[in-house]
Specification:
Keywords: Disulfide bond, Hydrolase, Protease, Serine protease, Signal. It contains one helix and six strands, in the order H-E-E-E-E-E-E. By secondary structure, it is mostly beta strands. A hairpin with a 4-residue loop joins strand 2 and strand 3.
């Protein structure tokens, strides 16, 4: 419980950033442009999402010397300039030039070296802000912010997610929770799926 206070402070920082820098992604957060009527209940082998169903999802990709990009982590778009993600994604990769961000993607090819095509957008990382009390050993305070350059443009397939209110506290009763991201489409699946729809 004590470790949550610094995380909450970082979330307040993120909320203030959202309020201040919302130049091209103004308007309500958390709007899903397309939704599946029947959501998948499983993680591995879950249901494929429609394009635009999770517009705040961001693919964090490691950028190699030969221009290949490898999806490593997911993040949530807060506004046109900031992404919220996990601090453990940057263990050993803390230089901004090691990263590319892909917005609006439904499918990701692992080890891609081709430019993204609209409506997808690719951006650079200008700044990585890792929680000052993040512990790689325990993964306590596992939270980070990324500043995007140039700012991303929101539209039909890209839009900001919402953060909880600072004093919201824990949920008071059961709530439905959705997990979205890119990963294996079958248990013990292979990473070598260059043409697959859900390549990690």
């Amino acid at each position: 419980m004590f470790e949550m206070l610094p995380t909450a402070i970082l979330l307040v920082l993120a909320v203030s950033v959202v309020a201040k820098d919302n130049a091209t992604c103004e308007g309500p957060c958390g709007l899903r442009f397309r939704q599946n009527a029947h959501g998948g209940a499983r993680i591995v082998g879950g249901q494929a999402a429609q394009h635009g169903a999770w517009p705040w999802m961001v693919s964090l990709q490691v950028f190699t010397y030969n221009s290949y990009r490898y999806h490593t982590c997911g993040g949530s778009l807060l506004n046109s300039q900031w992404v919220l993600t996990a601090a453990h994604c940057f263990n050993g990769k803390t230089k901004v030039y090691d990263w590319r961000l892909v917005f609006g993607a439904k499918e990701i090819t692992y080890g891609n070296n081709k430019p993204v095509k609209p409506p997808l957008q690719e951006r650079y990382v200008e700044k990585i802000v890792i929680h000052e009390k993040y512990s790689p050993m325990t993964e306590g305070n596992d939270i980070a912010l990324l500043k995007i350059t140039p700012p991303v443009s929101c539209g039909r397939f890209i839009g900001p997610g919402c953060l909880p209110h600072f004093k919201a506290g824990l949920p008071r009763g059961p709530q439905i929770c959705w997990v979205a991201g890119w990963g294996y489409i079958e248990e013990k699946g292979s990473l070598e799926c260059p043409a697959g729809p859900l390549c990690p």
